[in-house]
Amino acid sequence: MSEQPTTPTAAQRDAIRELVRRLPVVREVGQRFIAAGHEIALVGGSVRDALLGRLGVDLDLATSARPDAIEECLRGSADATWDVGRDFGTIGARIGHWRLEITTYRSDAYDGGSRKPTVTYGDTLRGDLSRRDFTVNAMAVDLPTADLVDPFGGLADLAARRLRTPGTPQESFGDDPLRMMRALRLASQLAFEVDAEVVAAIAQMRDRITIVSAERVRDELVKLMLSDQPRVGLTMLVETGLAQLVLPELPALQLEADEHHRHKDVYEHTLRVVEQVIALEDRLPGGGPDFVTRFAGLLHDIGKPRTRRFASDGTVTFHHHDVVGAKMARKRMKALRFAKDVTEDVAKLVELHLRFHGYGSGEWTDSAVRRYVRDAGDLLDRLHVLTRADCTTRNSRKAARLRRTYDDLEQRIATLAEQEELAAIRPDLDGRQIMQILGVPPGPVVGEAYQFLLERRIDDGPLGPEQARDELLAWWVTRSG
């Protein structure tokens, strides 16, 4: 791919200089490195985001200095430094509320079947930029001049909202195959169009993703799911074939007929559910974006391919796909090295996503409400969002009826919560009281008795200590036979 240097307009030059002026930390760090005889520049995503007006507190800089020299230049000015990226030429620092990553000019490449890139230090800023993933990330602001360095047309691509690579896509993805995932993630985050040559290269080179560590793939997938438009990246993930290697459960849904005939396939329904989860995130206590609920929306129907059955009348069923899907979700998330608590939360939501529909058209007993709350636990708010999002019917009357029914359920939960402290349902007697009444020592029988009283509490609400004691003794007589 030919290089296309871009000359910034006067307004853009003024914006860049204003950026540097407003970031005294950049000027001060730059002066220290220049005084020590090193080159340094603001680079990559920091420049891109600054030009898009979305710069955060994380700043990326590139320098001719090696890691030891970087630390020396930061000494006395940084509130804290860390060197967990030293093997990759990166030293981190915190100065005020800014977080900096300063990296020696470098070029990374994978060798054969290695899961880690081989780091080679470079000598020039231009050489460093030439090995970056995309042209919009291959721009730099030189310090202290505040001149834009843009040898590959990143500014023009930024204006066109287009993702291209500085060299050929094959060279870029050969250097680091994770960039294939990053292209899809950036398309979702920034609402950029991915260049046709880049898309074709992803489809051609998708097998290379297998040499990248599961942790790095996972991190890109999380960022994609937390973007403003994850559907964009997810669609490309499937269309390029990359999903077959990263998340094969997703393209498998394309083959499944939707038993309610709401969409051409379960895959389309799934993407719609993710979008509706995002639209409903303001119902969550912490708002959004919320990875657990979004990923549960993505995986909620992955059990359907394994449970599909054809009835004699031609209808299709997916009985128990919620339970099967939960097991599949655990397996996939374990393979992607997700934390255990995140995995369990997602799997539990997948397992519970049909629970609401198991209670007919809204004739919920108090007992059913208590069990719903008890089973959801601290995932209740997320389950509310997922269940509502799972309604993608085009029948407006049916959709309105489902919304009203779920509104009624939430109101029932709120009412019972005020009366019974639903958030922490416990038996009327604790373990110590059970042992005292039954005259038994600690052991399995205490757990059995506790579970019996808990079920009675769920069925009939608070019993009170006296009634609970009577029922416990009656249970004990029956159990002792």
Describe the structure.
This protein has 481 residues and is α+β, with helices and mostly antiparallel strands. It folds into four domains: 10-154, Beta Polymerase, domain 2; 168-246, Hydrophobic Seed Protein (Orthogonal Bundle); 257-424, Hypothetical protein af1432 (Orthogonal Bundle), CATH 1.10.3210; 431-480, no CATH class. The protein has helices at 10-22, 24-35, 45-52, 67-74, 125-130, 154-160, 169-175, 178-190, 196-205, 214-225, 230-239, 243-246, 249-252, 266-280, 291-299, 304-307, 321-335, 340-352, 366-376, 380-389, 396-420, 431-438, 444-460, 465-480, and strands spanning 40-43, 58-63, 80-82, 90-95, 98-104, 106-109, 118-121, 140-143, 148-149, 162-163, 193-194, 309-310, 316-317. 38% of the residues are buried.
Topology:
Layout (H helix, E strand, L loop, with lengths): L9 H13 L1 H12 L4 E4 L1 H8 L5 E6 L3 H8 L5 E3 L7 E6 L2 E7 L1 E4 L8 E4 L3 H6 L9 E4 L4 E2 L4 H7 L1 E2 L5 H7 L2 H13 L2 E2 L1 H10 L8 H12 L4 H10 L3 H4 L2 H4 L13 H15 L10 H9 L4 H4 L1 E2 L5 E2 L3 H15 L4 H13 L13 H11 L3 H10 L6 H25 L10 H8 L5 H17 L4 H16 L1
Parallel strand pairs: 2-5, 10-11
Antiparallel strand pairs: 1-2, 1-8, 3-4, 4-5, 6-7, 8-9, 12-13
Physical arrangement of strands within the biggest beta sheet: 3-4-5-2-1-8-9
Number of contiguous helices: 24
Q: Would you count the extended β strands for me? A: 13
Which class of secondary structure composition applies to the elements? alpha+beta
Helical proportion?
Answer: 40-55%
Q: For the CA atoms, what is the radius of gyration?
A: 28 Å
| Biggest sheet descriptor | 7 strands, mixed
Number of separate structural domains: 4
Average pLDDT works out at 87
State the distance separating the first and last CA atoms. Answer: 84 Å
Q: Report the β-strand fraction as a percent range.
A: 5-15%
CATH topology of the largest domain: Hypothetical protein af1432
Which residues sit in consecutive blocks of at least 5 with pLDDT less than 50?
none
Which term fits the overall shape? elongated
* CATH architecture label of the largest domain: Orthogonal Bundle
Q: Name the CATH class of the largest domain.
A: Mainly Alpha
